[in-house]
Design goal:
The protein has helices at 9-19, 35-46, 56-63, 84-90, 106-119, 136-142, 157-166, 204-209, 227-242, and strands at 4-7, 23-29, 50-54, 71-75, 96-101, 123-127, 151-154, 170-174, 191-196, 212-214. The chain has 9 helices and 10 strands.
Length: 243
């Protein structure tokens, strides 16, 4: 299986601390000697990971961006659930899932993975088309959550949502025009929270396949929230109800 590229202090340090044996080598900016870099190097040496000095241009070429913070790691992919059935068969208790329809920005995906991890969601599910892949930028923004939260892409999202219903998972879509508030919904059972893109929202068929629609109450001047912020609000409300 092909190695994946991780970059940025959060993503690389999280992998070193949780699955150090999967990290084959780390490339670091030879010009950086600050405390943050020293801390990372200490963790890497303690784990016995090979450290390679590199210049900024080489790191840029490896990841295709200058936002690597001077650290790039080559690591084996972790073994997470690869499909819906495998995921649901392994869950004990009511599932908590996040469904993303039409999210194309890797920064938004990374932030959604991060908040999904924080709220204890079992997976993030998205269609293969019109959705961003789990690339190095998304993994960096996720700050390690890309290694802990399964990101499952499906060929037909509406069909997958119907399969969730057959598993007694309640599909709750989020939309600005619903009269039902998020805080009126019951999230104690199996639930999948469905989020659409910031510009267009959920696609028509995705919306129609949901069991219910809710809105996040807005009390200020802005009309909508970033999808990762909205995901966090919804996931943590579901988690609050389950406590």
């Amino acid at each position: 299986m092909k190695n994946k590229t991780l970059f940025g202090f959060h993503a690389v340090t999280a992998r070193l601390r949780h699955e150090a044996q999967s990290v084959e080598e780390i490339y670091v900016d030879s010009s950086r000697a600050d405390r943050r870099m020293q801390d990372l190097l200490q963790v890497a040496r303690a784990a016995g990971v090979r450290i390679i000095q590199a210049d900024d241009q080489r790191l840029n070429n490896m990841v295709g961006t200058r936002r690597h913070q001077g650290v790039v790691a080559m690591a084996a992919p972790l073994s997470l659930a690869r499909n819906l059935d495998e995921l649901l068969d392994a869950i004990e208790g009511p599932p908590l899932l996040l469904v993303l329809d039409g999210i194309t920005d890797p920064h938004n995906l990374g932030a959604c993975l991060r908040v999904a991890d924080g709220a204890g969601a079992h997976a993030v599910i998205a269609p293969k088309d019109r959705s961003v892949g789990l690339n190095a930028t998304a993994a960096k923004v996720a700050s390690g959550a890309a290694d802990t939260v399964p990101y499952i892409t499906v060929t037909n999202l509406a069909r997958t949502m119907r399969e969730m219903k057959e598993r007694d998972i309640w599909l709750t879509g989020t939309t600005d025009d619903s009269e039902k508030s998020l805080y009126e919904a019951d999230f104690k059972g199996g639930v999948a929270l469905v989020m659409g893109s910031e510009g267009e929202g959920m696609r028509r068929l995705t919306r129609e396949t949901c069991d219910t629609l809710v809105s996040i109450p807005m009390f200020g001047a802005v009309e909508s929230l970033n999808v990762s912020v909205a995901s966090g609000i919804c996931l943590y409300e579901a988690r609050r109800q389950r406590l």
